[in-house]
Amino acid sequence: MEIIMTIVAGVLIATATYLMLSRSILRIIIGTALLSHGAHLLLLTMGGLKRGAAPLLGQEADAYTDPLPQALILTAIVIAFGVTSFLLVLAYRAYQELKTDDMDQLRGNENNE
Amino acid sequence: MNNLVILPILIPLITATLLLLIPKNVKLQKVISVISLTFTTIAAMVLVHTVYRDGIQTLEIGSWKPPFGIVLVADMFAALLVLTGVIVSFTCVLFSFRNIGKGRENFFFYSFTQFLITGVMGAFLTGDLFNLFVFFEVMLMSSYALIVLGGTRIQLRESIKYLLVNIISSALFVIALAYLYGLVGTLNMADVSDKIAQSGQTDIVTVVAILFLIVFGLKGGIFPLYFWLPGSYQAPPYAITAIFGALLTKVGVYSIYRIFTLIFYHEPQITHQIIAALAIITILIGAIGAIAYWDVKKILIYNIVTAVGVIIYGISIATETGYAGGIYYLVHDMVIKGALFLLAGAMFTITGTDNIKKMGGLIKRHPLLGWMFFTACLALAGIPPLSGFVGKILLVQGGLEQEHYIFVGVMLFSSLLVLYSVMKIFMNCFFREEVLSSKEEKGSTRGLVYPSVILIALSAFLGLGAEFVYPYVFEAAETLMDPSIYIQAVLKE
Questions:
Q1: pLDDT at B446
Q2: Nearest-neighbour CA in chain B from A42: distance (Å)
Q3: Is the separation of the CB atoms in B230 and B354 below 8 Å?
Q4: Which of B:135-174 have CB within 8 Å of A?
Q5: Residue B18: helix, strand or coil by DSSP?
Q6: What ipTM is given for this predicted complex?
Q7: DSSP readout, chain A?
């Protein structure tokens, strides 16, 4: 199971890399979302995918899944969510102000005299 | 157990929240900021003194024993950086009172600054790797807000790039943490170090170490991961660039020091060799960038890159002298970069341009500004009575003891180039014939110079009072040399 999940995370991160190297800002933002998905899946996988009950003491099982990675992922998800919404609004403002979503046209062009 | 450790994080956090409630009352915001920063400075001073007197201070949050709970750890290294960081941000806030302008002040500028300080202090003081990630995000989120605040075209353009780079490095940070957790099953720094010391640093641990180096290198701006830095730091106004230049990259540098002295120190022939090579190229790249430009801000930004290289090299020397030199230079560099950016900000206020070729003769009407800038330049290059000298001489001594001749040569040569680059600013902007008559000046420097006077005085104190500062720095270096001191203080075995 871990091997499949690792491959899935790898595919997500590969797709994210491809998207982030494109020119349109929106594709780049989709890339960052996929990248954080890949990272979160990897965090879950590396914590171990052993069988066990959900980490609720009321379930009275013999074994539980590891609760720590789940807490870490929950933290990482809200952080990624906050950053992504900031980035989306920033991209919107930049589109309004700069009239382009093409990263090639957003290059620095200070001339060094 | 000592609640003192959390104060440098807690005071700015509460202040930031309070300031959110009074967005339009700028005067009250200023008063609250000053009061809070004064208290934070006092707390940081007491913290340094307590650590010096009683050894490493820890705070187990919620009384959960490490490695199960989050623990805050103040060793001398962290405490010194906390104190320096607070003082530098204090002066930057004083500078922005006169400089930042109504538009930004009405939109939570002081709140964001306090959140930034919270993040930086938390990153210095935490003893848990995931908590370090969270404090990095606190710091980065407020830096995103600060870099784009105002919304000019160049800010929008550059902040998109700054955000993207940091989102990618944060994702890599999470991935690195996932691998480390999969390998050792804990995230408390002392416990991770203990576990790796017991099982030996296997190849896969070394791979994770290099992944961490990439992550913190992206934050700290080492070669070849510095490419985002010149553009991004050029976009915001000087008061903000000063905080960024003095604090943000230094948090990355601090993290590299922390993990490579505490956790991944078993395979220095791989990791420390890589750090050494990257540091030397970073120094050269920074120096080349600094002499290439005719733009005050760009020159100072490339000097940040050079300094990061010099500090990072302290790790691969890996002796007490080397670490002490690195720490001394780190403290010095935070102070002097703050001072230089603030002085350059005052110059920009007067002339309204960053272009050296469009300035001249400022010394006639602004002698204090001019000679302060001159002193800061000398301190940056490492001229004896000032602070840069002590750090560099310790690094040279450490480098010679370990026979790292290339580094010593490159560093001394880079000092020359750094001196040339800042003297180019001084000679061209302050001497030559006057470009602006007193009526043409774009703004007054009233109240803009004294924050940097504080920093220059501190720099002079770090240089002249080296005897007084040495014991603190050497205690910090001792803790870095011997990870077991840190581990025992945290795990209490």
A1: 76
A2: 7
A3: no
A4: 137, 141, 144-145, 148, 151, 153, 156-161, 163-164, 167-168, 170-172, 174
A5: helix
A6: 0.94
A7: -HHHHHHHHHHHHHHHHHHHTSSBHHHHHHHHHHHHHHHHHHHHHHT-----B-S-GGG--S-B--HHHHHHHHHHHHHHHHHHHHHHHHHHHHHHHH---BGGGG-------
The pLDDT tens digits for A1-26 are: 889 999 999 999 999 999 999 999 99
Q: Residue B492 burial by CB count (10 A; 0-12/13-18/19+): exposed, middle or buried?
A: exposed
The residues in A 17-56 lying below 8 A from B, measured between CB atoms, are 20, 25, 28, 32, 35-36, 38-40, 42-43, 45-48
Residues whose CB is less than 8 angstroms from the CB of residue A32 and which lie 6 or more positions away in sequence, other chains included: A16, A20, A84, A87, B164, B167, B168, B171
Q: Is B457 on the interface with A (CB under 8 A)?
A: no
Q: How many Cβ contacts (< 8 angstroms) between chains A and B? A: 106
- Rounded mean pLDDT, B442-469: 87
Q: What angle do CA B17, B20, B23 make, to 5 degrees?
A: 155
Please give the model's pTM, rounded to 2 decimal places: 0.94
Identify the burial level of B372 via C-beta atoms within 10 angstroms of its C-beta, where 0-12 means exposed, 13-18 middle and 19 or more buried: buried
Q: CB distance A46–B178 less than 8 Å? A: yes
Task: Based on DSSP, count helices (H) and strands (E) in chain B, helices before strands.
Answer: 22, 2
CA angle B162-B164-B168, nearest 5°? 120
Distance from CA of B162 to the nearest CA of A (A): 10
Give the pLDDT confidence of B127-179 residue by residue, as tens digits. Answer: 999 999 999 999 999 999 999 998 888 899 899 999 999 999 999 999 999 99
Check CB contact under 8 Å for B130 and A75. Answer: yes
| pLDDT digit string, tens, across residues A22-36 | 999 999 999 999 999
Query: CB of B294 within 8 Å of any CB in chain A?
Result: yes
Report d(CA B168, CA B159) in Å as an integer: 14
Dihedral (CA of B367, B372, B376, B378) sign: positive
Average pLDDT over residues B473-479: 92
Give A100's pLDDT tier (boundaries 50, 70, 90).
Answer: confident
Q: Do A108 and B157 touch (CB under 8 A)?
A: yes
Of the partner residues A28, A32, A97, the one whose CB lies closest to the CB of residue B153? A97
Residue B296: closest CA among chain A residues belongs to which residue? A112
Instruction: Indicate yes or no: CB of B160 within 8 angstroms of CB of A39.
Output: no
Q: Which of A40, A46, A112 sits opposite B179 (nearest CB)?
A: A46
